[in-house]
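Suppose a colleague, Dr. K., hands you the sequence of a protein chain of 149 amino acids and asks what its three-dimensional shape might be. Before reaching for any lab equipment, you can write down a predicted structure in token form. Begin with the sequence itself:
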Amino acid sequence: MIGLIARSVGGQRPEKEVDMKLPKQAQGFIDNIKNVKFFCAEGTLPEGCKLYATRYAAWYAALNAARDATRDAARYAALNAALDVARDVALEAALDAARNAALLSVCLLVKDSIAPDHLANAAARWRAWEAGYSVYCDVDGVLYCYRKP
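The predicted structure, expressed as tokens, is then:
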């Protein structure tokens, strides 16, 4: 059970706590997050991933793939995004893990309402984290992963 306190319009807290029971699969996933050995690089990456030694190497390879696959506008956006990421690599790696965990949690909650490809992509991203690698991004369905920040 998860106790949620919803905020009403105007930012005031209601007096009543709302109890919500998550679907078994989603609760099981959330409970399992604490067992993931981040950056241990012991497991097997999901099929279709490309592995690089560092976040920078994954970024560089992803940048080249994006450059080859897009026009000038996408090149500049990817470069700007990559430069933003470079400022605080360790923090970003932790945020990436949280985002991927949140993505899979949401996909599990709405799996009957989304295309199977979305759930498969989110699950592949989390399998990479469970295997001890980080996911930088995906380009055309290929995950760009790295060993350490």
